[in-house]
C-alpha cells in the first residue's frame, strides 16, 4: 500500500506516528506530494482524493482512504500491536470522543487560524481567507489546551490510562500550534508534561 504525504506537515505526522506505534512503518511505500507546488490540487491527485489533502492511503486494490482518522482506523485493524482505536464498544466510543475533541478543538482550530489569520501556505494556495474566523479559532485552540490540561491532570493519556489515537491527534495539534505560534496558555503543567512524555516515545523520537 502507498501513503501519499508531505514531510513536515502536521496531518501526515499523525499517520507516521500511528504506523510507528504499530511497528509498520516499513510496510508501506511513502509517495511525496508537493503541496507547496499545488500537486494535491491537480486533477490527477483529486481523482484519488477529491478533498485535495494529504495524507492519503492507497491500497493495493486501488481503494483510496483520506483523512487521518479513517487511515488510522484501517492501519490499526490490519497491523498487530497495541490497539490505537480501542477494542470494547465503550473503549472505542471514549477514544473516538476524545479524538474528535482533539481534532476539532485543537488540530483543526490551529489549522483554521494558520490558513485564515496568517499567511498560511502563501498567496498561491490561500485563495480565500476569513481572518476574523481564523482569529476566533486560535481562541478555540487555546481553550482546548486548557480543557486537555484538566483531562491530563486526572489521567495519564487523553482518552484514559494508555496511549491511543487521541494522543496522536492532540500531540500533532500541539506541534502544529508551535509552528503556527499559537502559544500554550500559562500554567498548563499537565499538558506540557504529557507532551514531553509523548515526544519521548520511540514512535516519535526514534
Ligand atoms: N482532515 C484531514 C486534514 C488533512 C489536511 O488538511 N492536510 C493538510 C496538510 S497537513 C493539507 O493537505 N493541506 C492542503 C491545503 O491546505 O491546501 C485529515 O485528517 O487528513
TrEMBL record:
Swiss-Prot/TrEMBL keywords: Transferase
Annotated GO MF terms: transferase activity
Pfam families to which the protein is assigned, alphabetical: GST_C, GST_N
Domain GST N-terminal: 1-83
InterPro entries per UniProt: Glutathione-S-Trfase_C-like, Glutathione-S-Trfase_C_sf, Glutathione_S-Trfase, Glutathione_S-Trfase_N, GST_C, Gtt2-like_N, Thioredoxin-like_sf
Positions of the GST C-terminal domain: 88-206
Family the UniProt entry places it in: Belongs to the GST superfamily.
Annotated protein name in UniProt: Glutathione S-transferase domain-containing protein
Native organism taxonomy: Bacteria, Pseudomonadati, Pseudomonadota, Gammaproteobacteria, Alteromonadales
